[in-house]
Amino acid sequence: MPISGIEGLGAFMGGPAAAFGVRNVAPTSNLGDLLEPGKAADGGASFGVSLASAVDNLTAAQAKSSDLAVKAVTGDLDDVHDYTIAATEAAVTLELTAALRNKAVDAFTEIMRMQA
Hints:
Layout: H1 7-13, H2 16-19, H3 31-35, H4 47-74, H5 80-115
Helix pairs in contact: 4-5
């Protein structure tokens, strides 16, 4: 049975979680699988690769939004709703990225505090 703690976030956010490659992760009974560099619990890509992919998706969403903004200003855009949706997706994805970064920094700070 897969763990789906973040799956609800994807439904709530209306899709930006999908930009981060959020998917169900099968539970593992072997702690070594979690600690081995380059190996994820579900046999997929490592966390670093997933994070790099998420940043690439954020960049693509921002580029799409910028392209549609230029088309809207020049009058080449048929439906302004396309731009509004793309801009909102880019903004929400950026907010999610910033929140994840802040949580990672907080976790790192807490680990450093525990070692002192």
